[in-house]
Amino acid sequence: MHLFSFGINHKTAPVDIREQAAIAPEVLPGALTDMRSRHAVAEATILSTCNRTEFYCGVEHADPERAIDWFCEFKRLPRDLVTPHLYRHTDAEAVEHTFRVAAGLDSMILGEPQILGQMKQAFAMAHKSGATGKILNRLFQHTFAVAKQVRTDTAIGASAVSVAFAAVSLARRIFDDITQQTVLLIGAGEMIELAARHLKEQNVRHIIVANRTVERAQLLADVCDGEAIALAELPTRLSDADIVISSTGSQLPILGKGAVERALKIRKHRPMFMVDIAVPRDIESEVGKLNDVFLYTVDDLKDVVQENMQSRMEAAEEAKKIIDVQVVDFMAWLKSLDGVPTIRALRSSAREIRELELRRAKRMLKSGQSPEQVLEYLARSLTNKITHSPTAALRRANHEGDNTLLENARRLFDLDDD
Question: What pLDDT, on a 0 to 100 scale, did the predictor assign at position 304?
Fold first, then answer.
């Protein structure tokens, strides 16, 4: 068995390509089933976030091209559009990449912890869909253990740096006193929850949480002492917001140019700071062309947070050493699977000999022969038959001068030089 992974991320593809490649959560089970039914892979897990869409696959033969063809067909994307942005990893490189992603070493914000939770959700979805087996089950169990070790043994997560934190940090740079601003959070997922917690730590005056499900919005609003509203109320409440941070799972924009223009008119053109950290985007790109609007996307956040990064970079070097050791460990296990058929065949052959000689020994006992004679026969016969084939092979090797086989036999059977 082999492993390979492929995909696109924030380093290889701009946000418009990532939007087209993203696979919505409700589509994932069907995508996994379709991918395997087309015989593209034996096992699969799909991780699709705002910054990456990538596939982890277990196969008999490591050939990513067939799976990539499936991906382009499934998403109805021209291959020549996707290929320039794709990365591919096989076997040890695939294992290393998986470990790096889970540990936050491949994230836009080095060491951010959200990706580990997203990876766990992706694996849980694949496992529930029956898309994983021995290879990926072992890979992700090992991956989560490695990520935990990295978090425990290094300072990779010592400072608060994430996309959500970057959004709040950028808002603090735009406004002299963020505590006096009204913040509108659109969505109620993990990123928005992190943003809410960061905003609360900054003592922001008023936080409004808008979500399709008001009950879910209320749960988050309770965390940050804010106000919960439904998405349907956005047209009448958008003008209240000095700062808008949006991250939903919507496949279509939630805020268009017209809605923002109306809000600006009500605000008498007081500036609005907007951060769209969703993929696909929640806010139409044309909004950024309006006067009095400062619109940032996830790609714009790359250069926002540089503080606290030095310690994380040093921790990343320590994390790489941990990952290097664990990659070797996992690959040793994976390669051991190649010997499983041989081991099974050896045990099967030994069982057949045992059952045959045991039946003969029982017949000898029934015929009246003494137990001592039967035991002696059984021991001698088992020894002769089990060693017959290896002995014949060693004699041929000796005759042909095959010293490698002779040396390997000594290792295999743990034979002394004497």
Answer: 62
